[in-house]
Design a protein that fits this description.
Layout (H helix, E strand, L loop, with lengths): L9 H11 L8 H14 L3 E7 L3 E8 L5 E3 L5 H4 L6 E3 L12 H4 L6 E8 L5 E9 L7 H23 L11 H17 L4 E8 L2 H8 L1 H18 L5 E6 L2 E7 L3 H20 L9 E7 L7 H22 L1
Antiparallel strand pairs: 1-2, 1-6, 2-3, 4-5, 5-6, 7-9, 7-10, 8-9
Amino acid sequence: MKSPEIPANEKERLDALRESGLLEPGASPAFDRLTRLAKRVFQVPLAMVNLIDEHTLIVKSADGNAPETVPRNISFCGHTILSEVPLVVGDMLRDDRFADNPLVAGEPGVRFYAGFPLRLRDGASVGSLCLIDYQPREFSAADLAVLSDLGALAEDEFAAVSAATTDDLTGLFNRRGFNQFVQFTLSSARRRAEPLTLGWIDLDHFKSINDLYGHEEGDKALKAMASLMRASFREADLLVRFGGDEFAVLFADTDEQGGWIAMHYLSGQVESYNARRLHPWALAFSWGVSEFDHQGNDVQQWLKCADEKMYAMKQQRRLER
């Protein structure tokens, strides 16, 4: 088996993927429509839109029986992103690169693969639209043209997701929105010699809400948290949902002590909300605050510091239970 090579621009490729917003969890109706259409047009048992992260193939959308993730080193799409043209293998058992691949030699016994490399607007190849069959098959020039047309539609949707700076569910800024605005905010704070503090928030027991009451209730919890953040903080503060159950707030013209006071105020608002017993679940969160060091920090160090303080609080609460 030949594992896919690592592209020469891997760091830049991964940075572009993580900034794109495509890795955010949640439903992907536009991609679901594409995979349904691809499966029907080509009459294959499985069609997927996949993303290639550092170590993993992540299934963004699938029509058919697909795993949530596949190790990158055995993925077919890991090969697809290395070229500007589609990868088509009519019979995997007759191709030295894939004949002894565990997905071919073992379960599920893949025999046919066609993958179209999907790129972001900056040219970074981050995933694929692919077709899977468990029988060998031919793939004509006309088939290739249709796959390319569907791939272009998928890339258009990639661009739309990447252009969005707000989270659809909560209306807060998303990770991309944060990345776009943070440098401007830092530059402005440095020019005015003003402090800037980051608050990092992680909901406690959020998985239990989804498991016990369903994802609809989980969405209600996320929206409730976003609403409480809006009510608790100033309009000048930048509110962000980073994805999943992680939130952040950039406190403008605020030192770390001021951020600490503001987070305690949010804690009180959450307690008051829970006391109203509007839902079968209660909100809880752990948090950390970190003031930006204009002389030494970079953004990633700043994020890491706030995240570590949040994690320390979460661990302490677990020990106290």
